[in-house]
Amino acid sequence: MIEVDGIRGHFINGDLEFLQAIVKHTHPRLIAEIGSFCGLSAVAMASAYSGSVVLCHDTWQGSEGWTKEWTEGIDREFSANVDRLGFRGRIHPVCGDSKKTAALYPDGFFDLVFIDGDHCEAGCYGDLVAWYPKCAGAFIGHDRVPGGGVDKATARFVREHHGLRISEIPNTHYMWKIDR
Ligand SMILES: C[S@@+](CC[C@H](N)C(=O)[O-])C[C@H]1O[C@@H](n2cnc3c(N)ncnc32)[C@H](O)[C@@H]1O
Q1: Ligand 1, CB within 6 Å, residue ranges
Q2: Which of 7, 43, 61 to mutate to test the pocket of ligand 1 (most atoms within 8 A of CB)?
Q3: 99-132: pLDDT as tens digits
Q4: I want to staple 176 with a disulfide (CB 3.0 to 4.6 A). Which of 103, 121, 144, 147 is the partner?
Q5: What does the CA dihedral 85, 56, 119, 155 come to, rounded to 10 degrees?
Q6: pLDDT tens digits, residue range 3-38?
Q7: How far apart are CA 80 and CA 88, in angstroms?
Q8: CA of 104 to the centre of ligand 1 (A)
Q9: The domain spanning residue 85 has which CATH number?
Q10: Residue 148's domain spans which residues?
Q11: What's the total number of domains in the chain?
C-alpha cells in the first residue's frame, strides 16, 4: 500500500507512472475506471491530462476478504479526496456493481478503460465482458498476478476473442493491456 497526496491505494510507483504516461500519450477525453477505492488511480489519471473526465465505478463496499479498515467509510474517503484535491468537476463516482453499471453507456463510449475492480476470476471476467465493448481506445488493468483470478479471467477472455492479445507492462505490479 502507498499513500500519495494523502490518498491511500494498492499500487507501486511504477503503476501510477504507467497510468500517467498512457494518459499523457493518448489524451483520453472520457476515462472509465472500474474499482476506485479512495481515488488514487483516478486522481493520477485526471492529473495527467486536464481535458479528461474520469467516471469511477465502484460499490465502495470493498472486495471479498477485505477487513473493516479497507471497507468502512471508503465512499466518504473517496469523495473527500476528490474535493480536497480540486477534481470535483472531473472525477465522478458511479456507485454499483460494475458488471451492471457498464450498461449505462453505449459501445465505444470511453477513450480509455482501466479495470481494477473485482479480482476473482468470475468477477474480473464479468468486467471484461461488460467493459471491453465500451472502450474505443486503450483497455488496461492491474494485478494480473500469475495463476490468480485476473490472470485466469484475462487469459480466458483473450482465448475466446479471436484477434486479441494481452501484454504485460514492465516495471508495474502485473499491469496489462489488451490490444486488437
Ligand atoms: C483494488 S481496489 C481498487 C484500487 C483503486 N484503483 C485505487 O486507486 O486505489 C478494488 C475496488 O473494487 C471494488 N469492487 C469490488 N467488486 C466490485 C464490483 N463487483 N463492482 C464494483 N466495484 C467493485 C472495491 O470496492 C474496491 O474499491
Answers
A1: 9-10, 35-38, 40-41, 57-63, 97-98, 116-118, 123
A2: 61
A3: 999 999 999 999 999 999 999 999 999 999 999 9
A4: 144
A5: -120
A6: 999 999 999 999 999 999 999 999 999 999 999 999
A7: 9
A8: 18
A9: 3.40.50.150
A10: 2-179
A11: 1
